[in-house]
Every structure is written in structure tokens, then in C-alpha cells.
Design brief:
This protein is α+β, with helices and mostly antiparallel strands and 369 residues long. The protein is built from 13 helices and 6 strands. The chain has 2 domains: 168 residues, no CATH class; 166 residues, Alpha-Beta Plaits (2-Layer Sandwich). The protein binds guanosine-5'-triphosphate. It catalyses: 2 GTP = 3',3'-c-di-GMP + 2 diphosphate.
């Protein structure tokens, strides 16, 4: 299984989010709120409440202003317009036609907004202030009569309308935040299992998957091979061309590996300039063939972009096949011994370390350069 290069870009540092999801959501909310106020304008005209109808015209203007403020990244202005509109509109609606209108429900939408977007130190004071405003309006309406009452049926229509809009907005916000949480979890998971420089699996994840594959091998008996790869004279590359160029070579080598393996193969950066590949359903001979392909692809690659004309990169590889009674560490240690033999044999070659089926002492190296 190769890591998905679309999820984590090799060498990518922390991602700078250009327009955080919250502000995109805020833009959508201004559009929805403006549409709701247009509906109110028509409703209050029909109910013969011109004052409330024109209040909604002002509200639409404020939302249009907030939308353009967000578009031009004047987020503070947009937030100010949004808050002012909702607080003032709720107070006006309630004092004009009564608590039964349900305009106070809109204030509840600020609870998740404050919790999720305000700076931490402002969350508690913000919630307290919102609660105080809500209660003050409630108490006020216990002590005064609505200034411009509308018929009971019309009040009920307004109440139902407000309840429905707030219900829909809460549902929309919940679905939106759920999406944000799921996407964030996926990103974190990808970061936790990926090597940041090459985009391949990292060592921890490879170790975990390798143990699982060995368990699978024990159950199914399907052959499985390991390949340990180490770039040759990498220190020299670093010393001659610099550490950054060394990093580029590692990234390009990861591209070579991605090109050479099947989707079910596990390809990882094992550490430094060392890589590990596990090939399920493959015998030692299959793995040796694949390793020879990797050697050829590496040596045949055009590295001049990084190191100048005529300079080459080669890789030495050690191969082992998992045997009955093996655990991952034993198979790895054989691959490591085989890699050492490849280095000792002059590098740019593949060595397989074979063992007899019932004893580790019966070892045989086969080297192909
Ligand atoms: N640029 C870069 N270099 C690294 C990284 N990790 C390890 N290295 C370097 O890789 C080099 C490995 O050097 P050695 O272990 O001596 O091996 P080598 O020079 O490849 O020699 P042989 O393996 O014997 O062919 C060291 O200089 C490390 O600093 C990395 O992430 N980026």
C-alpha cells in the first residue's frame, strides 16, 4: 500500500490555510440570512407592519455589507455587522410584536459560534454576555406589552417561521462542523502515518503493518518478501551538494519506488537514506526481480537536475523471504544482513539471504549486481 500522495504532499511543511472553513461558512450564512430577511420583508408587508418590513431592508443591507467585508478579508467588520444585526433585530422583533414571535431563538445560534470561533479567553465572558442579553429581553417582555402587536395567527406564523429557520440553521451548522471534524481527523491520521519528506509510510506505521502482514502470513501461508534498500554513498551526496539537495534526491527516490511497486506493496522510509518494502504474496525470487528493477530504474534515472551532468545515484538492496516460525524482526534482520552483503559486494546490487526451512544456520547469499 503506497501512501496517497494527494493526501500529504512530500516535503510539505505546515499547510497555510488561505480561507479557513469558518469564514467560508460565515459567507454562506450571510447569504442565507439575507434571503431570510427578504422573506420577512414580504411577510411583514403582507401583515401590514411597515416598520418591521423596513427593518428587514436595513438587515439585508447589513448582510450584503458583511458578505463583501468577508470577501475582501475585513473579517472583523463582517463579524461586527453580523452581531449587530442579529442582536438588534432580535430585540426589535421581540419588543415590537412580542416574545411569542420567536426572534430570540436566533440568539441561540451564537452559542456554538462563540465556542468554536472566539479566542479561548473570550468564550466564557461571551457566553455570559449573551445569556444576560437573552434574559434581559425575556424579563423586559414580562413587564411591557409589545409596541406594535400583530394578530395572533400572524404571530404564530412568524413564530413557526423563525423556529424553522433556526432549526434548519442549527442542522446546517452541525453538519458543517461534523464535516470539518472528519476532514481534520483524516488529515491528522495521514500525518501520523506518513513520512513528511517523501510522502511514503513512516517507520511506525510500517512496523505496525508489517506485524499484521506477518500474522496474515502465519494464517494463510502465502509467501511474503522483504526488501531493505539503502542509497549508496549518500553522505557524499550531502557533503558535495548540500543537505537540501540530499533531501531532493530522497524525494525523487521515493518517486522511483512509487513507480515500481503494486498498490498492495508496503513502501516506507525506514530511516535516513534507508527504505523498506514488504511485498505480500511474493516469493524471495519475486522480490529479487522487483529489487533488480528498482536498481536499474534508480541507476537509469536522470539525476542531472539535482547533481549536474553525468552524476548518478545507486541503491543497494537486501532481500529476505518470511519463513515459518519467523517474526518481523527476524525477517528484517536477514534483509539487513543481505543489505550489508550488497554493500560489501561493491554496492548497486541485490542480495538475497536464504535460510533452510528448519534452521537459521543454513544461510546462503545470492548476489546480483
Ligand atoms: N539530506 C538528508 N540526509 C540525511 C537524512 N537522513 C540521513 N541523512 C544522511 O545520510 C547519510 C548516511 O551516511 P552513511 O550512513 O555514512 O551512508 P552512505 O554515505 O550512504 O554510505 P553507504 O551506505 O555505505 O553507501 C548521513 O550523512 C546522514 O546525515 C535526511 O533526511 N536528509
Amino acid at each position: 500500500m503506497l501512501s496517497d500522495p494527494n493526501t500529504i504532499k512530500p516535503g510539505a511543511g505546515p499547510v497555510r490555510v488561505r480561507r479557513p472553513a469558518f469564514w467560508t461558512l460565515a459567507m454562506r450564512c450571510t447569504q442565507i440570512a439575507a434571503l431570510v430577511d427578504i422573506a420577512f420583508f414580504i411577510l411583514f408587508l403582507a401583515l401590514d407592519s411597515p416598520v418591521l418590513a423596513w427593518v428587514n431592508v436595513v438587515s439585508v443591507g447589513m448582510y450584503v455589507g458583511a458578505y463583501y467585508a468577508l470577501k475582501t478579508r475585513r473579517n472583523r467588520l463582517a463579524v461586527w455587522l453580523f452581531w449587530t444585526e442579529v442582536l438588534a433585530h432580535a430585540a426589535l422583533g421581540i419588543t415590537m410584536i412580542g416574545w411569542g414571535s420567536g426572534f430570540h431563538y436566533y440568539l441561540l445560534l451564537f452559542i456554538p459560534a462563540i465556542c468554536l470561533s472566539a479566542p479561548r479567553k473570550w468564550v466564557f465572558p461571551g457566553l455570559c454576555a449573551l445569556w444576560a442579553y437573552y434574559v434581559a429581553l425575556d424579563v423586559l417582555m414580562w413587564s411591557i406589552e409589545p409596541l406594535q402587536p400583530i394578530p395572533q395567527t400572524a404571530l404564530y406564523v412568524v413564530h413557526l417561521f423563525n423556529l424553522t429557520v433556526v432549526f434548519a440553521m442549527f442542522s446546517y451548522l452541525s453538519v458543517f462542523y461534523l464535516g470539518v471534524v472528519i476532514a481534520t481527523q483524516r488529515k491528522l491520521q495521514a500525518v501520523a502515518i506518513t513520512d513528511v519528506l517523501t510522502g511514503l509510510l513512516n517507520r511506525r506505521q510500517m512496523q505496525y503493518l508489517l506485524d499484521q502482514e506477518v500474522e496474515r502470513f502465519k494464517r494463510s501461508g502465502q509467501p511474503m518478501g522483504l526488501m531493505l534498500l539503502d542509497l549508496d554513498h549518500f553522505k557524499q551526496i550531502n557533503d558535495t551538494y548540500g543537505h537540501d539537495m540530499g533531501d531532493k534526491v530522497l524525494q525523487e527516490f521515493a518517486v522511483v519506488l512509487n513507480e515500481q511497486f503494486r498498490s498492495q506493496d508496503l513502501v516506507a522510509r525506514w530511516g535516513g537514506e534507508e527504505f523498506l518494502v514488504a511485498m505480500p504474496n511474493s516469493t524471495g525470487a519475486d522480490v529479487v526481480r522487483a529489487a533488480e528493477r528498482v536498481c536499474q530504474a534508480t541507476a537509469g534515472r536522470d539525476w542531472s537536475e539535482w547533481m549536474g551532468e553525468g552524476r548518478n545515484v545507486t541503491v543497494s538492496i537486501g532481500v529476505s523471504e518470511i519463513k515459518a516460525g519467523d517474526d518481523a524482526a527476524q525477517a528484517l534482520s536477514r534483509a539487513d544482513e543481505a543489505l550489508y552483503q550488497s554493500k560489501a559486494s561493491g554496492r548497486n546490487c541485490v542480495t538475497e539471504l536464504k535460510v533452510g526451512s528448519n534452521s537459521g544456520s543454513n544461510k546462503k547469499h545470492s548476489v546480483s549486481c
